[in-house]
Write a structure and sequence with these properties.
The chain is α/β, with parallel strands linked by helices. It has seven domains: 4-63, Winged helix-like DNA-binding domain superfamily/Winged helix DNA-binding domain (Arc Repressor Mutant, subunit A); 71-247, Rossmann fold (3-Layer(aba) Sandwich); 250-338; 355-500, no CATH class; 504-631, Rossmann fold (3-Layer(aba) Sandwich); 641-750, Rossmann fold; 757-865. It has 35 helices and 22 strands. A five-stranded parallel beta sheet has the order 5-6-9-4-10. α17 (429-443) runs antiparallel to α20 (482-492). The longest helix has 22 residues, at 400-421. The chain is elongated, with a radius of gyration of 43 Å. 36% of the residues are buried. Pfam families: PRD (PF00874), Sigma54_activat (PF00158). Residues 73-307 form the Sigma-54 factor interaction domain. It comes from Ligilactobacillus pobuzihii.
């Protein structure tokens, strides 16, 4: 009479004829036993591998599908399925199968696969149950071909000294079974040739026998770590029709890597009869460690970890595994708890053909994306799919250890995304479990249907959220189809916040040089705003504007949508150059702000969050501190403008601006600029930049250019200059009365009397004669006859320079590099120092190289002309 547990098994089989899965209570009722007793029997049957279970409350039971010898191999119905199918063909092919050769790096399981081929042949009945599996490692005899022949083919009595009797070889032992030649690349040429006849006919001659051949029925398996073409004769290769290649462990799917780790920990736990707890970080390190010896190396590393844990905690109820610096941190949700009390069973990856149901899922999601709706519909569809799959496929056993690994990877990634972008701050365990289970299911599915069509639609509806999904994917070590992965993150992790993330009409970017300042500010602002407002780019200190614009361009392309405007905040560099570089990438308004601070970024972020219009944000930015510069339009100004640049300093330019502002009636903006900035701006910009500029007023000639009308203020003392300025003012809309008033004010300003009025500290009655004397010395040295307007310009410049240097006597002296200076300029510096020497001594000042360079600009047209 069968044992009670097997009678329970029979009752379960009967119940399963009418149902796909059965609960413990149903089995107890059928068997007429209590639920507790039935549960005990079912548990024993489960540990014997006769039944499988799924679910938790209630637990469902099914009859385990008994596999063949290859079922014990992790990946047999996954990444190794094609190899397993080919190996089966090599066994099943009538009448005697055919030989095969297994290639791959050391430690990938070539010998193990060969043993499974042998066991499968026994199961199929193509060889006897008691057939032999003879093994020879050719490397052991690589340097002794004669000894190799004797071991392989046997020898006759007297074949060599010491051969006192006939001795059968491995070929004889393998008769009726399999001969496995490992490291076959070490087989010498003559030994390969001896195998030809054996492979072709089954005939061979033992060593020392030349007359009577022997016949055997042997199946062959070969293995090597080397390239076949470089090590084996082509004639030998032609006799082995099947070559299968095993990949290194790093190239195996992540699911199988986790299962291998679980398998070896489980084996050690059972051997020690102890439960062990393996931290998530240890699992991750094992996965990311390059295993030189592949599966064999991994097994040894795990054995050593378990041995160390056993040494440290022999009396502990649970042995704790440690690898690295995280010793002592064992949170239950971040660890694998592996029981050592259960019988060790080979792990089955249980990959199932879920492709049809996944295809149906994609069709449903695509229909939902094609019509207006909310993303929670798609999220609900994913949840329903998982539930229905569990109900209709009781054999859906999602590897709990692998699923936990994925879950921990997602937790860490989402935490980093939350810290940087201010979203998904609280993700429920159900969401994380759902995402992890779906990814685990995808890993168990061969020939995944493509999700690209659904993802393309989703990106159109949720482009900003999809961008965050891709950033999340970059943070996890999970190799799964990228389209599916992005789609699952969108529908399971980001679904509740997608609407908020998409509710932004402006694109905002932070750029900082060196360190992680941009990322730091980005994290603070996004966190305080509670939404993904800014993206940050931490750039090397010496990066060019072109490289920055390249990075920004890539980011803009990834957005997949249009914005009402873009805001760029950066820390240093040319404002106008940065504006021009980035503006060319956009078809919308652009606001660029330099001298980035957290306060300004937060102010901008809050305005964007509050749906403030771009123009309002730009107008408010104009009121930021003077230390910050902004630009949000093409050109130097959006308004009609006049640029004023006086070589004698910004103070003089501001006084000219005051005159223009008080007299002119037009709505015109007066812009003051440093003389050198004016030269650079004129050289580096085109007409479009000066499209609203009426003209430029300056006290020195500028290099010839064709982008803006430039008038030297001193030219208005001449008839031609006077007429030119009057025409330009009339074109602005000024009447003759205001024009005459302005001309009178400027003439009065740029006279000896005007110079005297500009001096606020020095005595003009003393300074002006000295300035006139200095100018005369320059005329005398260079044999010049300066015009009245040039003299006035020099008088104004030198007098104001003296006063400016006396008031700022503690400023650092500016020296220029004269190494590559033209000879005429170098001479001017030497002459000027002599001419200014007496004034420097009298006023206790030093005319530095920068001031001399400005003087040279005034004299240069006359000196070069010579």
């Amino acid at each position: 009479m069968p044992k009670a547990k097997y009678r329970v098994l029979d009752q379960l089989k009967e119940l399963l004829q009418n149902s796909k899965k059965v609960t413990t209570q149903q089995v107890a009722k059928k068997a007429g036993l209590s639920r507790g007793v039935t549960s005990s029997y079912l548990s024993k049957l489960y540990h014997e591998g006769l039944i499988i279970k799924s679910g938790t409350k209630p637990v469902y039971w099914q009859i385990a599908i008994q596999g063949d010898a290859f079922s014990a191999m992790i990946g047999a119905d996954g990444s190794l399925k094609k190899i397993v199918d080919e190996c089966k063909s090599a066994v099943d092919y009538p009448p005697h199968g055919f030989p095969l050769i297994i290639t791959g790096p050391s430690g990938v399981g070539k010998s193990y696969l060969a043993s499974l081929v042998f066991k499968y042949a026994q199961e199929k009945g193509v060889i006897a149950k008691d057939a032999n599996f003879a093994v020879l490692n050719c490397a052991d005899y690589a340097n002794n071909p004669e000894l190799l022949s004797s071991v392989l083919f046997g020898y006759k009595k007297g074949a060599f000294t010491g051969a006192n009797t006939d001795m059968p070889g491995l070929v004889d032992q393998a008769d009726g079974g399999y001969l496995f030649l490992d490291e076959v690349h070490r087989l010498p040429r003559e030994s390969q040739e001896k195998l030809f006849v054996l492979l072709d006919s089954g005939d061979f001659y033992p060593l020392g026998e030349n007359q009577k051949k022997k016949h055997v029925d042997v199946r062959f398996i070969f293995a090597t770590t080397e390239n076949l073409d470089n090590t084996l004769l082509q004639t030998f290769q032609r006799r082995v029709p099947l070559q299968v290649q095993l990949s290194s462990i790093a190239d195996r799917p992540l699911l199988e890597q986790c299962q291998l780790i679980e398998h070896f920990f489980k084996k050690e736990a059972v051997d020690m009869q102890r439960d062990i707890k393996v931290p998530y970080e240890t699992i991750k390190q094992l996965i990311n460690t390059r295993q030189i010896g592949n599966v064999g190396s991994l097994a040894n590393q795990i054995k050593l970890l378990c041995a160390e844990a056993f040494r440290k905690g022999q009396d502990a109820s649970i042995l704790r595994i440690s690898l690295g610096k995280k010793d002592g941190k064992y949170e239950d949700d971040a660890s694998w708890l592996i029981r050592g009390t259960e019988h060790h069973q080979p792990i089955e990856s249980q990959i199932t053909d879920y492709a049809p149901s996944l295809g149906t899922l994609l069709s449903t999601l695509e229909k939902q994306e094609q019509r207006p709706g909310k993303i929670n519909e798609q999220s609900l569809t994913i949840t329903r799919f998982l539930r229905d799959t569990r109900k209709t496929a009781a054999n859906l056993v999602l590897d709990k250890y692998f699923t936990n690994y994925i879950r921990q990877e997602l937790i860490q990634a989402v935490q980093q995304i939350s810290a940087r972008y201010g979203v998904v701050k609280e993700v429920s365990q159900n969401k994380l479990n759902r995402a992890a289970q779906m990814i685990s299911l995808l890993q168990k599915t061969l020939d995944l249907p493509t999700a690209s069509a659904v993802l393309d639609l989703a990106k159109k509806h949720y482009p900003r959220t999809a961008y965050l999904c891709r950033k999340t994917m970059e943070l996890v070590d999970i190799r799964v189809d990228s389209d599916w992965f992005e789609l699952l993150l969108l529908y399971t992790i980001f679904d509740h916040e997608a609407s908020q993330i998409e509710n932004q009409d402006l694109l905002a970017i932070l750029v900082c040089h060196g360190g992680g300042m941009a990322s730091s500010i980005c994290s603070v602002v996004n966190d305080l705003c509670g939404n993904y407002i800014f993206e940050a780019f931490d750039m090397p200190i010496d990066v060019s504007n072109q490289e920055i614009s390249h990075q920004i361009n890539n980011y803009i392309k990834q957005q997949g949508r249009k914005y009402d405007g873009t805001v760029l905040l950066f820390d240093m560099g040319s404002l106008s150059n940065m504006y021009r570089e980035v503006k060319s990438l956009l078809d919308t308004d652009l606001l660029v702000i330099n001298n980035l601070t957290t306060a300004v970024a937060l102010d901008i972020g809050l305005q964007i969050q509050q749906k403030q219009e771009f123009k309002k944000i730009a107008e408010k930015a104009e009121k930021y501190p003077n230390s910050m510069n902004i630009q949000y339009y093409e050109g130097i100004s959006q308004k009609q403008n006049i640029i004023v640049s006086c070589m004698s300093g910004v103070g003089l330019s501001r006084e000219v601006k005051q005159i223009l502002t008080s007299v002119l009636q037009s709505d015109v903006e007066i812009i003051t600029m440093d003389y050198r900035d004016l030269k650079t701006t004129l050289q580096n910009h085109d007409h479009l930049y000066f499209k609203n500029t009426c003209f430029v007023l300056t006290t020195a000639d500028v290099p010839e250019q064709n982008v803006a009308e430039v008038i030297n203020i001193y030219d208005i003392m001449d008839k031609n200059g006077d007429s030119q300025l009057r025409v330009l003012l009339e074109q602005m809309g000024e009447n003759k009365r205001t024009i005459n008033q302005l001309m009178d004010e400027l003439l009065r300003f740029f006279t000896i009397g005007g110079i005297k009025g500009r001096l606020r500290f020095m005595n003009p009655e003393v300074v002006i004669p000295e300035v006139q004397d200095i100018t005369a010395k320059f005329e005398e040295y260079y044999h010049l006859n300066l015009s009245g307007k040039i003299k006035l310009n020099l008088y104004m410049h030198i007098a104001l320079m003296f006063e400016r240097m006396m008031l700022n006597n503690d400023r650092p002296v500016q020296e220029l590099d004269v190494k590559d200076m033209p000879e005429v300029e170098e001479e001017f510096y030497s002459v000027a120092r002599n001419i200014f020497h007496d004034a420097e001594t009298k006023y206790n000042i030093q005319v530095d190289d920068y001031e001399l360079s400005l003087m040279y600009e005034l004299f240069k047209p006359m000196l070069i002309k010579e």
